[in-house]
Amino acid sequence: MTDLVGAISGPFPSASTPSGVAWSPRARLHLLEATITVLRRVAFHEASYDLVATTAGIPVLEVKSVFPTWESLLIATLDLWHGRRTSPLLPVAERHGAAAFLRALVQSNIEDPALMRVLSATVNISATPGHPMAPHLQEAWVHFHVQVMRQLGTDIEVGRESDTMNPARGAEQLIALYEGLQLQSMVRPGMNLLDAFDRAVTRMRDGWARTYTPPVWDLDIT
User: Does this model's pTM top 0.70?
Assistant: First the structure.
């Protein structure tokens, strides 16, 4: 997702409340912080303008004057929240590779699971044709795949990963483990997510080090 951390401190288009009071970047940030607080406290489908307004201590009409649609508020919030979580971890990718970067994300999600719950809740939205949030969310997932794919390409160049691994396919597999195990951990209380990730990635990277053999399914189902 687009990182809005830097953008928050930069210029924003001027937005005014019904009373004519201009909203500063700091005031907009206050609304996004309030939305993050709400999404940490309640399920995604229970969040609302009213809860955000109450948390921010601002009338609902003023919240809507800054973010006229609920979708626009959610997108700005997810961009900020995701950027804050991901940006500090990018050096891990540069120093230790894509697999270590995804592992750092897993650890971050264990420490603060609310964001992953929200992102998982948006999967259905992103796959819904015509939904106003779908294009932005799909772009975010595509960007994530490209980011991991490019890092795997670098990993091959510097010798962290074997050149028998195709970066595009490797990114699909690595992200599948990351997202799939995260989802399991949400519905299986007590699951050791980090241990499960480490085991699965170790097995997968062992496979990457071998020449790919096309699958042959010998299934007699007649």
Answer: yes
